[in-house]
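Task 17 of the worksheet. Students: predict the tertiary structure of the chain below and write it out as structure tokens. Keep your answer in the requested format; marks are given for formatting as well as content.
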Amino acid sequence: MGNDIVIITTTGDFHSYAVALNLRRHGAAVTVWHSSDYPKGATETIAFHDNECRIVVHDAENQLPADPAVIWHRRPAITLDRDVLDPADVSFADLSVRMARRSLLSLYGRSAFWVNDSSAAARANSKPLQQMVAADAGFLTPDTLYTNDPKEVRAFMRSKNDSVIFKPITGYVWSDDEKVYMPYSTVMGESRLVADGLLQAVPGIYQEYVPKQYELRITIMGRQAFAAKVPRSSAGRGAVDWRLTGGHLVMEGVELPEAVIERCLHVLRELGLVFGCFDFIVRPDDEYVFLEVNQMGQFLFVEDLTRLPLLAAFTDFLLSASADFVWDGDAGAVSLEELRMDVTSAMDAAMNTHLTAPSRFFPDRITA
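Model answer:
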């Protein structure tokens, strides 16, 4: 196995360029795999000869190392070549491309340290599974309904006195010619529900509203935890979903009880993850209530707001290639702020060479 580090990403992902730049400052050999080039501007091959498997991946700029030591499975994406496809064939092509990519990821880097393993990452995106694992770990979780049954939804809302949070089953961003659409969590009562036919057409998450003293964002890499508190008074229009505060969000670094960290680590282990961003509500009675864990959440905005050394620690985490990583500090570490201009330049340069997957939008600062 070599000592290469591969970052799987798409153009516009600030995190990938920041980490790649910092890794190179440490002398690491880094390949940024712009996965969104495929298949329109890239080729990916799996070949078997005499029972030996060969994998060759060319994006618009690089060929991937054959046997990397570390793979950061950051933002995989695809871009179909709609210019050559008949509209009737787009669905078939999309399914074929995704299956081919999934097959390749199951074979590539078999001896590498993955952050996170692609199969575990897909499994961990199940919100009901997360909730069950968190409950098994000893966390409190909100009463929650995952359904497309209008009768279940209406009965649940009445049982919670019309104080229910609605969330989409999966995070998704889409756009038309004028706007980018990103659904957020919102408080709803029965009077705000759409018609039963629409409720049944698209399943959703309906969750009891939990009174909050404050919210927590906990970023765990290996065994290293960084916690940031969102004070209740700073939430403003983001009182339900702090992503809506935009540039007005306030965070401050906090220490966590060891028991909370151990329970978070239990959740990661059960989900097969080595990295995750947890969201919690801390109730007025100081109880921690688990909301979710994002297996590839954003974390650099937390450094922006708190000055917690997340970029330095995450860089060292990848270099360590260890699920038992604990950061011991780095006197020579640079901050995100010190690298920001160089990172922006690298990101802008990549936009001129690589494709951006359609219907994807990654805000620099606040995306869970």
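Marker's comment: The chain has ten helices and 17 strands. The longest helix spans residues 90-107.
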